[in-house]
Amino acid sequence: MQRQRRPQPRIRFRNGLAAFTAVAVGAAGLFTAAAVTTAAPAHAAAVPTLSPLDVPARGATVPFKEQEAEYAATNGTVIGPERAYGTLPSEASGRQAVTLDAPGEYVEFTLTAPANAMSFRYSLPDSADGRGRDASLGLLVDGVKLKDLPVTSKYGWYYGGYPFNNNPGDTNPHHFYDETRTMFGSSLPTGTRIRLQVTSTAQSPTFTVDLADFEQVAAPIAAPAGAIDVVADFGADPTGAADSTARFQAAVDAGQAQGRTVFVPPGSFTLYDHVVVDGVTLAGAGPWYSVLGGRDPVNRNRAAGIYGKYAPGGGYGGAVRPHESNGPSRNVILKDFAVIGDIRERVDDDQVNAIGGAMSNSTVDNLWIQHTKVAAWMDGPMDRFTLRNSRILDQTADGVNFHTGVTGSTVTNTFVRNTGDDGLASWPERVPNVGDSFTRNTVVLPILANNIVTYGGKDFTISDNVMADTVTNGGGLHIANRYPGVGSGNGTAVAGTITAARNTLIRTGNSDYNWNFGVGAIWFSGLNEPIRGAHITVTDTDVLDSSYAAIHTIEGSSEGIEFTNTTIDGAGTYAIQAQAAADMRFTHVTAKNIAQSATPTHNCVGAGFKVTDGGGNSGWSGSTCSGLWPAPRFTYGGRPTGGTPTPSPTPSVPTTPTTPSPSAPSPTTTAPTTPPACDPGTGNLARGKNTTATSRNQTYTAANAVDGDAATYWESANDAFPQALTVDLCAVTGVDSVTARLPASWGARTQTLSVEGSADGTAFTTLAPAAGRTFDPAGGNAVTIGLPRSNARFVRVTVTGNTGWPAAQLGELEIRATGATATPTPTTPTTTPPAGTNLLAGKPLTATGSVGGYGPGQAADGDTGSYWESTGHAFPQSLTADLGAPTAVGRLVLKLPPAPAWTARTQTLAVLASTDGTTWTTARAEAAHRFDPATGNTVTLAVPGTTARHLRLSFTGNTGWPAAQLAEFEAYTS
């Protein structure tokens, strides 16, 4: 019998006065009704979008009424809709906001219910020094000024690579928005006009307003009978002028000893360190009245927070002070107060979270948490912890993370917005997380990574949530064997039953700036090891207006996944993006408004991606493996708009093809097993190509071996020889040698390896038999293996032993080609390149070290907006280029990103040259060279009479940053 569908709940568009279409979305998310509202004068002409707060019976029940600036009355400028990372509207709710840039410009909201308080979300430009600027906006009530509201950019604007910095000279600006709150002093009736207005642009040239939340805040909660009062009984300072940490600690210790509640009366309390609680209730007068904040002015790794005691052998690996030890704490209740911190940067080792440590059989209830690193980073082992009815805003890292051995615990009915990393996460790094749940939460605008994720975990429930507006490098819902320590060897892999039920995802998933393609709204990864043996169910789920694909597999195979009663309505690219093998069952999975409607499934793993058709499916039949990632066409109210294809990396091919399912066939047309052929290029053909491995250890993936940086590396699983690394050159071509490199700083070792080649990825022949190859730092830790005249598309290196480590290891695998004729690579240039030709354009670069996404290849990509940056505080550092053959070089040009992004700096460096990569001569002695925006941030160095195959820049200092930096490394004959 076909499953009976449940009645359809309704979902509303954000109710602007511009024309819009109201929609009804059911369990299957179908649009069933439409209405039109007429635009009114003086209101912003914004695009109607779905609101995460208007999904009945899903998400958190919040105490406020939210209004978007783009639908309010305004004489400012509507920005967006836009989802491109690094733009102001991309981080706005609904991807739209209003910018005010002149005195008298305003956004005016009309109350839809009585309110005595508001909070609003906004952005100011950063200051030139990155420390932020302070300004104010006028607050008017029915045209009469009530007060000036302080606003700041101190808690926004991060730059560079993970974990980011506050240097405006760096690239990658993001995390633009902040929130502030105020009370009106009285309750204002429905229909009252609340205006935010620019009074001056002297302190800030622009003010961007995203939204406002209006609420009726209840009177302060009175102290419970018999409670200890932190002010009256222990002398805590409610003005915040003095540090009250010791007084709070004494109060909660007394509360535990006497079995009494500890009460925090109205006030703003400064804490220079976290207070450790065990067996006690800490209660405030309400999160609008009792506020904890502050940070140690000297020891900046300490700040306001409430922690349980750390559990031995658990998630926390740092130093533990005596009063923090012997956890977990038990029977703790934290309720009815706020923690509004002063954290303006992300330093992962700093214990500056609002809630932390380990707490079993404990509850956090009705807290407002803002401006801390993580709202609740819980380091188990611990059991039966509940966080509920709370607000989490403006974090520099995660909203909540259940880290290592957290069991039977939950986050429920909590609103999360503007986290710097995953909104809600579970990460069992060393000890399994079992039986946890994230239910009835609304998670909006994680600036990095996912709205909700479980990295590993057993018997996890993710239900009745709303996820919206992922910004970059993540999706709405992520289930993965990913992140360090997650694997079956620790018992921490995805296992048991993973239930994802009755969730709504709106505008989730987005482009990953490392991968340069989109991440799906719901995505699965087997990076550490395949997802196997678990039962994963996704039921009664609506995936709406996804930025890229709706369903996505990548990095390793996944199986045991069932989608039932799932509607995909709007996807910027595909309904399904299969970049790794998977075995799924679809029942009543429908898709419409898919940008790539002719081929809504992108599948380049062929039969490795299997879908068993359970019936009732539609809209995702037809597949492609184009070798291009199309630009997304976003859907607003079911109306796709614009977009053209852009080149992309070739999708990965599974190492071992799987057998098609014997069950009913999927309606998806089978794609080719391998991607279409392409031009393999010249020089090192392996650079940037799709690479797979038989296994990998933690984050040391196969891709590290073809990224142009020998300092990064692939490492296989330990104690599990043989292991293999396979590179797909994307077309059959002549190959004559492979060079294997290890990081230059590693000690000598011998690896036993062989080289095989294949035209089709199935039948391999031996090109070089197994032999011990010695990697010696004295010889550059590199081994070159000559091959017979061979043609191959797939080149595989098989490792059967390693004297230095019980695993296969490769820092870089280079494959040299001769083309179809399979003639040897010339050792001398046959022609002289024309003058003015950059000899290093596209050539392979290696470095002694790099950080984040700033690899050495970015110094030869022709783009001065990208750059290489070495490991920090670790001079000397070097960048080495391989011209491919000895070449006459007369001039080098070194570039940094142009002004105004980068200020002047002086880097001290020398130029070395070599014909063989082993013996080096000095082409230009060490000297200080100034990069000045006034001269294009460019330095030109003459190196007359130099003939070299290899050119090396050796850096020993940089006055602008404690690392070597270079955007472009260019060489010319004259």
Summarize the structure in words.
By secondary structure, the chain is mainly β. The termini are far apart.
Number of helices: 1
Low-confidence stretches: 1-41, 637-677, 819-831
How are the strands ordered across the major sheet? 15-18-21-24-28-32-35-38-43-45-47-49-51
Percent of sequence in beta strands: 35-45%
What overall form do the CA principal axes indicate? globular
Report the end-to-end length measured between terminal Cα atoms: 79 Å
* Percentage of residues in helical conformation: under 10%
Number of DSSP E strands: 71
Label the structural class: mainly beta
**Average pLDDT:** 87
- Oligomer state equals single chain
**Radius of gyration in whole Å, from Cα?**
29 Å
Largest sheet, strands/sense/barrel: 13 strands, parallel
Quickly list its features.
about 950 residues, about 40% strand, mainly beta, 12-stranded parallel beta barrel, globular
Could you provide a short overview of the structure?
1% of the residues lie in helices and 41% in strands.
